Amino acid sequence: MHKHTWLYLLFASLLVWLLAAAAQPQPVQAATDDSLTRIQQKGTLVIGNSPNYPPYEFTTNVNGKEQVVGMDIEIGKQIAKDLGVKLVVKRMDFDSLLVALETGKVDMILSGFSPTAERKQHVDFSNTYYTSKQDIIILKTDKGLYSDRKSFNDKKVGAVVGSIAYNLVKQQMPGAKVVGMQNASDLVLALKAHKIDGIVKDSASAVAYANSDPTLAAIDGKFTVSGAESGNAIALPKGSYALQAAVNKSIAKIKRKDQINKQFLPAASKYISTGAKTHTMWHYWTYFAKGVEYTVGISLVAVIIGVLLGSGLAFVRLGKITWLKKLANAYVTFVRGTPLMVQVMFIYFGIGTFYNVSAVVAGTLAVGLNSAAYVSEVFRGGIQAIAKGQTEAARSLGLSQRDTMRYVVFPQALTDIWPALGNEFISLIKETSIVSIIGVADLIYQMRIVQADTYRGVLPIAIAMVLYFIMTYSLTKLLAFLEKKMHHEVTV
């Protein structure tokens, strides 16, 4: 076994233990249940939501401002009103919602959630507020080929990962190959590109897509779904009985007044129609501008974190303090050996359980810490590449070890590693797209909002691609200018 392997394993085990402890739901006994009181005292009701599921929840542009709208949002507003608090919508990927609820990032999940048996093991549910069957979205030109779920043998069928539809495809369409994606807009884009043959979605959502796009059609999938799992309910933390009772009271009032059919769904359909008829991307320029702003800001801060921490790690690894060298080596090895996406989720959901950190801070910190591991290797390699004769000559002239590094070795190393360092900076801009999974409004996140609002897949992607190119090309030119200047100063 490698002499440092035990340290790497210890480091990994510690992180896994911390994440497991953070994700463990803490049941609350009825006698000490303060779930409702806590929300009323803080004055806000935070709901977890994945706004890419019209008419339940989706984003739209209202008077130039981005808003999350839909049936579920209206239900959330009614519940918040009944509780006497303000509604706060926290947006993130659908398959991150359960983790967010279990780790206390949100007070409840209101996002077209079905109360499956598996989910009930981790969270409690309110009474069902809406019941709908599952349809299959197909291309209108293929309408004669498919009649229901049994028509898709040897075909590719898409569904949002983590949804009831995804499980239904696996369980009741054995002859089909399930294709899971994070976003409904991506599924529609894949369908239009003939990458998949159908999309299983809640009928209300499927009809909304079909009515908004003349190339699509919705057919009844004829799935067999149990009474509880066929409906939508609100997910709540385990043991939050007081909050559950209050939510059920609001749901009963909404049902009694038939607000979903009379108010919430018609209002959502109006927004869908407005977004679908918007023919120019210029209407959404503020979305893309906001995405660029977040992407540049996160990249800039992450670069500073990466350079400062990365250079420090490099000097530690080149130093003589054994235990610090081992710790730095373990950090670099572990970070380089795990995906950035996992690191983002760990910091936001895991460490964020012990200290309430925002999605922007968590995403920026994760990207910066990840970059530091690679920057460390760049610095270490550049310093070690400087000939030993340079150090010996400097020391013979009376320079201290610190001055030798500062005035002789490091300036030469920086000149040599600049291209590799610049490449890391450019890659970092593109890697910031990962933070969209926890709801950070970067360029990718804003692109998905435009897709959901306009029901267009390719054009928003093309615009985002051009914007990323402009950012990276501008940085490339700046880095080239600085590199040329450094070489000129060295030559002089």
Automatic annotation (TrEMBL):
<dbReference type="GO" id="GO:0022857">
    <property type="term" value="F:transmembrane transporter activity"/>
</dbReference>
<dbReference type="InterPro" id="IPR035906">
    <property type="entry name" value="MetI-like_sf"/>
</dbReference>
<feature type="domain" description="ABC transmembrane type-1">
    <location>
        <begin position="292"/>
        <end position="480"/>
    </location>
</feature>
<comment type="similarity">
    <text>Belongs to the binding-protein-dependent transport system permease family. HisMQ subfamily.</text>
</comment>
<keyword id="KW-0812">Transmembrane</keyword>
<dbReference type="GO" id="GO:0006865">
    <property type="term" value="P:amino acid transport"/>
</dbReference>
<keyword id="KW-1003">Cell membrane</keyword>
<dbReference type="GO" id="GO:0043190">
    <property type="term" value="C:ATP-binding cassette (ABC) transporter complex"/>
</dbReference>
<keyword id="KW-1133">Transmembrane helix</keyword>
<keyword id="KW-0813">Transport</keyword>
<keyword id="KW-0472">Membrane</keyword>
<keyword id="KW-0732">Signal</keyword>
<dbReference type="Pfam" id="PF00528">
    <property type="entry name" value="BPD_transp_1"/>
</dbReference>
<dbReference type="Pfam" id="PF00497">
    <property type="entry name" value="SBP_bac_3"/>
</dbReference>
<dbReference type="InterPro" id="IPR001638">
    <property type="entry name" value="Solute-binding_3/MltF_N"/>
</dbReference>
<dbReference type="InterPro" id="IPR010065">
    <property type="entry name" value="AA_ABC_transptr_permease_3TM"/>
</dbReference>
<dbReference type="InterPro" id="IPR000515">
    <property type="entry name" value="MetI-like"/>
</dbReference>
<protein>
    <submittedName>
        <fullName>Amino acid ABC transporter permease</fullName>
    </submittedName>
</protein>
<dbReference type="InterPro" id="IPR043429">
    <property type="entry name" value="ArtM/GltK/GlnP/TcyL/YhdX-like"/>
</dbReference>
<feature type="signal peptide">
    <location>
        <begin position="1"/>
        <end position="22"/>
    </location>
</feature>
<feature type="transmembrane region" description="Helical">
    <location>
        <begin position="357"/>
        <end position="375"/>
    </location>
</feature>
<feature type="transmembrane region" description="Helical">
    <location>
        <begin position="457"/>
        <end position="476"/>
    </location>
</feature>
<keyword id="KW-0029">Amino-acid transport</keyword>
<feature type="transmembrane region" description="Helical">
    <location>
        <begin position="294"/>
        <end position="316"/>
    </location>
</feature>
